[in-house]
Design goal:
By secondary structure, this protein is of the alpha+beta class. The protein contains eight helices and 16 strands. It has a six-stranded antiparallel β-barrel with strand order 7-9-8-14-16-15. It has a two-stranded antiparallel ribbon with strand order 10-11. α1 links the parallel β1 and β2. The two termini are 36 Å apart.
Length: 320
């Protein structure tokens, strides 16, 4: 049963990614719809049909007058909705409120705000309407010789992180994703990965030029299905947290795997952490460093990151 829309400016647009969670939402939509109805949430529902469709849908419906959106899917669905919000020109981004019912492979953004994977509990959080305005990231990257831009609300990964994202997304395309997909690819990818030579500049200061295992730039703490990649990140402080893992060995990565889930891996001698507002990353060869944002594989270096402070209004359970 679905609620009947009455007033666009006050009602919700519900964007559903039926492929998220190995098509779990497609199976569970009737249950979710009933819970939304019972909670008294008036909405219009749209299903995504392809990659990047949630960007188009959120932009289009905001321009029709919607100012409240519920994203039902994983981190990638949230990422697309946020990009649609930044691309629309009808309202300031902070006038659009986003809630989430999280069903995905990683669910790392939701983990930051303690949003339950239980549908009923997630809807209760939306109904309470507690909001928090976090920063957004914006990265400029290269794709097939064309410069492109992408907004993100969690973490961007380069080097090994980007390879793991590619492998995990390939599994999802084959409906083989799941809670252990990241962990599986984190281990198996070690046998095909080679360290990159990166030049990294933060706020116009060269901080590293050499061999890199991985580089993470982000707003929130978690990626890769619960890895605390940026343990000191604060989502609304107006700066990026950066974790650089320099050249290391397969044995060192496997030995410290458990430390990646509590953030203590940053104490390793080959790990350095930084903060900053603007980051430039170039590689040798020029286009070698691949990029992922919020778990979605994009293009490659050269890369330029900037922060959009306090620009995304979210419904959350836990503030900072």
């Amino acid at each position: 049963m679905e609620a009947v829309k009455s007033n666009i400016s006050n009602d919700w647009l519900v964007i559903v990614n039926p492929n998220a969670g190995r098509r779990k939402i497609e199976k569970d939509w009737d249950e979710i719809a009933k819970l939304l109805y019972n909670a008294g949430i008036n909405y219009e529902r749209v299903f995504t049909k392809r990659k990047y469709h949630a960007i188009e849908l959120s932009k289009t419906y905001i321009e029709k007058g919607y100012k409240n959106i519920i994203a039902i899917g994983g981190d990638g669905t949230m990422n697309e909705v946020v990009n649609g919000i930044f691309l629309q020109e009808k309202y300031p981004t902070t006038e659009i409120t986003i809630g989430m019912i999280s069903v995905g492979t990683g669910n790392d953004w939701a983990r930051t705000y303690k949003i339950s994977p239980d549908y009923k509990k997630a809807i209760e959080i939306i109904k309470k309407g507690k909001t928090f305005v976090q920063d957004a990231g914006l990265v400029t990257y290269d794709e097939n010789g064309e410069s492109k831009k992408r907004y993100f609300v969690n973490i961007a990964g380069m080097g090994y992180d980007a390879l793991v994202a590619i492998k995990t997304n390939a599994m999802k395309e084959k409906k083989k994703g799941g809670p252990f997909a990241y962990l599986f690819n984190l281990v198996t990818g070690l046998f095909q990965y080679k360290n990159l030579n990166l030049k990294i500049t933060i706020d116009d200061k060269l901080i590293f030029n050499g061999a890199v295992f991985s580089l993470s730039v982000g707003i929130c703490k978690y990626n890769g299905g619960g890895i605390m990649q940026l343990p000191n990140a604060i989502p609304d402080d107006g700066i990026y947290d950066i974790t650089l893992i320099k050249k290391t060995t397969k044995f060192r990565v496997i030995k410290n795997l458990s430390n990646m889930y509590d953030g203590s891996f940053i104490k390793m001698p080959e790990v350095e952490t930084f903060t900053g507002k603007e980051i430039t990353v170039t590689s040798q060869p020029k286009h070698l460093s691949l990029l992922e944002t919020d778990g979605e594989s994009l293009g490659h270096s050269p890369l330029y990151f900037e922060v959009i402070p306090k620009s995304v209004k979210l419904i959350v359970k836990k503030n900072f």
